[in-house]
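Supplementary Methods, section 5.1.

A reviewer requested that the exact input to the structure prediction be made available. We therefore reproduce it here, unchanged from the version used in the analyses.
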Amino acid sequence: MPTTENLLRGFFQVGYATTDLDRAMAMFGDTFGIGEFAQMRDLPSQAPHGGEMVASFALAYVGDTMIELIQPMGGDDAMLRDYLPDNGFAVRQHHLAYSLPSMVDLEATEQALRNKGIDIVIKGKGMDIVDFFYADTRPQLGHYSEYIYLSEKGRDAYEQLPHY
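The structure derived from this sequence is encoded token-by-token as follows.
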């Protein structure tokens, strides 16, 4: 039976938008000791309300928390780009993510957020390993909230990411 009593359960990721993925990875390495990230470059991705964008991603775990760096690369990428300055290098906190134990929980959480008037701006599936949605919780929390359900293949893939 899914539970929607706590809509912030399952925290596992901090997502950052950046103007320069390579510089962001170097900064996280030099400053915070994250030596290596798994990288996915120039991936077509879902954008808000059915649009498409291109973004580059870098992923690594620190303990049980995943760090995700995202550089907007084009298309309808305002969801990311609007967090960043027009000029110069920047890294800005963009979202927190929550991993849910089942598709039933993911769907129930989505409906609970909708019932509270929170806009679901992106809903999709990534590389056949993750079902996800982004909720626009900026008015309440100051950032987006991402909710995911990982398939068994997805859990295996995430275990292969660099861990620190």
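Residues 11-159 form a domain with the 2,3-Dihydroxybiphenyl 1,2-Dioxygenase; domain 1 fold (CATH 3.10.180.10). These observations are discussed further in the main text.
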